[in-house]
Amino acid sequence: MLCHACYAEPDAIADCTACRGTGRATRMPLCEEAWSEVVPGLWQGGHDVRSQAGTAGVVGAEFDLVVSLAVREGSGPADGVEHVVLRMADAGVDAALAARVDALAAQVVAALADGRRVLVRCSGGLNRSGLVVAAALVRQGRTPDEAIGLVRAARGPWALTNPGFVAHLRTLGPGGLALG
Ligand SMILES: [Zn+2]
Question: Is the pLDDT at 180 greater than 50, yes or no?
Fold first, then answer.
């Protein structure tokens, strides 16, 4: 996991007091909010939040499309809400996963263009959901670093600290997945 203060950026890592120059972190706190709006209509969240309320993270009918990258029994969404499930690990990105993330990002962008409210969620609402949300933001025309910045602004500095996800996002262009 990348350090949440310097993200192992070469020009910041040497002076970083949070990781003492290693660029790495070993633990990640939970967010306060179950979900956060990243850009109008597009929300990112997770099942696990700091709140002890049993209903935190349970989705009703707040959204028109819910993309779940981790599945938790009893966490919604309500009947009638479109629900897309892709179980994936918070690990690296191989070609098969890259293609599935790209397809999900395209689906998210199409839903937003139709004025639908979209939630992308995983467990902590930080990395897996951040990967799909940022890929969608790049498809909308933002640069990868703009997209990563928007995700971190919404979900906090621990979002997108999976170095494999960050490296993958930086290969993307507005047309989606770079083929070949
Ligand atoms: Zn650091």
Answer: no
- 25 C-alpha to ligand 1 centroid (Å): 8
Taking the centre of ligand 1 as the mean of its atom positions, its distance from the CA of residue 138, in whole angstroms, is: 26
Q: What is the pTM of this model?
A: 0.94
Distance from the alpha carbon of residue 10 to the mean position of ligand 1, in angstroms: 10
Which pLDDT tens digit goes with each residue over 87-111? 998 889 999 999 999 999 999 999 9
DSSP secondary structure letters along the chain: -B-TTTTT-HHHHTT-TTTTTS-B-S--PPPSSSEEEEETTEEEEES--S---TTTT---SS-SEEEESS--TT----TTSEEEE----SS---HHHHHHHHHHHHHHHHHHHTT--EEEEESSSSSHHHHHHHHHHHHTT--HHHHHHHHHHHH-TTTT--HHHHHHHTT-BTTBSPP-
CA of 21 relative to ligand 1 center, distance in Å: 6
CATH code of the domain occupying 31-169:
3.90.190.10
Distance 101 CA to ligand 1 centre (A): 28
- Which part of the chain is CATH 3.90.190.10? 31-169
